[in-house]
Predict the structure of Thioredoxin reductase.
Amino acid sequence: MEHVQVLIAGGGIGGLSAAIWCRRLGLSCLLLESKDVLGGQLSQIHNEIPDFPPRVYPNGTALLEELLGHPVIRQLRPRLGETILRIDANTHEVHTSHQVYRADYLIIATGVSPNIIPALADCPRVLSPWFSTTSQAATVKGQDIAVIGGGDRALESASNLSPYARHMYLLVRSDHLRARSEWVDRVNRLPNLQIMWHTEVERYSMENDRIQLELRSEKKEAPNSITVDWVLPRIGVRGNSQAFASLPVFDEHYLQTDQTQRSVPEWIYAIGDVANGAAYSSISLAVGQAMKAVKHISLGLQQQPEYE
């Protein structure tokens, strides 16, 4: 069993920032990333990043390239393609797809994943969760699109796609939109958008490379089905916390922490989106939380230099 002082789970900007702070504060660390590349969701950000000073980045890839050039990251020896399966809160054992570690501290920075609509799980005409409605909108020009969701991201997507799409549907399972008023006002002015309230997808079938959605609705006048070229679900995200079933969570499987990012038991910390929830998803916040978690570990070790 390999002993690790600080084990970092996740190679996105939060996990990489934690590694930088470990080096700065003299802590040894090992970073695990389930995918075969570092960067987490940064490479999936196709829009401009104007709120991570001092630079304005054209997209996430540009930020990631700069981050990977950091001296600490260049010397980092992450273990890619290694997934945490479970932890033992009492023994400090972390079981992965490759081996078992004994970690003095664990920092979880595993991010989030998009929620999935079971009825569309294997549908070939569902656009990727990472589909950019700004840089990739022209690829669906002249086609019919169903956007599913009633929050900010769903309405932003509908607004961005409207100039390119022939006709659009916005499927909302409730009787109101959860988005900010600016997005509500914008979609209400779209000439080619039809909002379908109290509507959910029950199943789908393919018809000549188009998808027929069988719908369930409380409204008697609502159609039983619609046929479109593409479906774009925008129904939120959930924390990637499956491997940490014993830890306290809130809302959509986000890990609950105290003000120092510490969970229960106290040798485990969580940072970034997996601990913040969708409303506070932020690159800047993830970086700051990485500092806070590692700093708290370092201060604790200074007070108790010998860890048992």
In short: The radius of gyration is 22 Å. The chain has two domains: 2-114+237-303, 118-233. The mean pLDDT is 94.
